[in-house]
Design a protein that fits this description.
- The protein is mostly helical.
- The chain is built from six helices and no strands.
- The two termini are 24 Å apart.
- The mean pLDDT is 80.
Length: 162
């Protein structure tokens, strides 16, 4: 049953929302956005005989839609919608991080150049392109990471996973 990911389900939910109206459209849109934040793959819940309603923004109606797509994945002619294509779901990110439990020991970040406030300026810096991957781990504390309505970060050093 693990053939369809939460990202694929998000795309199916968003596509279905386009053909719905009223409260059903809102329910499909809400579930489509929430699918990226589900901590486990929805298909894994079904494999473990658990309820899809454990997932955020999934009630009985949306749960039945998801169950149908998971048990009988629809033929997909195209990749994910361009709005969602380049994003990992939380479940996908956890699987990637679980492959290398030592990732947290290498987590670090620093400014390439100091930020400039209260004036317009052009910042020019010479970069070591080999350091780009290391610097990608720097958190943007003033951006989307500080919005608890769309981002939740939790780390338990005893478990070694997010």
């Amino acid at each position: 049953m693990a053939g369809i990911s939460n990202g694929d389900l998000a795309d199916l939910l968003a596509t279905r929302a386009e053909s719905e109206t009223g409260f059903r459209q809102k329910a499909f849109k809400r579930a489509a956005r929430a699918a990226f934040l589900w901590p486990e793959e929805a298909s894994d819940l079904l494999t473990g005989a658990r309820s899809l309603e454990e997932l955020y923004s999934v009630g009985p109606f949306i749960g039945e839609q998801l169950r149908g797509w998971i048990e009988h994945p629809p033929a997909r002619s195209a990749a994910r919608d361009s709005l969602r294509r380049d994003f990992l779901t939380v479940a996908e990110a956890r699987k990637i991080l679980a492959r290398d439990p030592t990732w947290s020991e290498r987590l670090r970040g620093k400014y390439v150049v100091e930020p400039v406030f209260e004036q317009e300026t052009i910042i020019i810096a010479e970069l070591d392109l080999n350091a780009v991957d290391r610097e990608k781990m720097t958190l943007d504390v003033s951006g989307h990471h500080s919005r608890p309505d769309i981002f939740h970060f939790q780390f338990d050093p005893g478990k070694g996973q997010i």
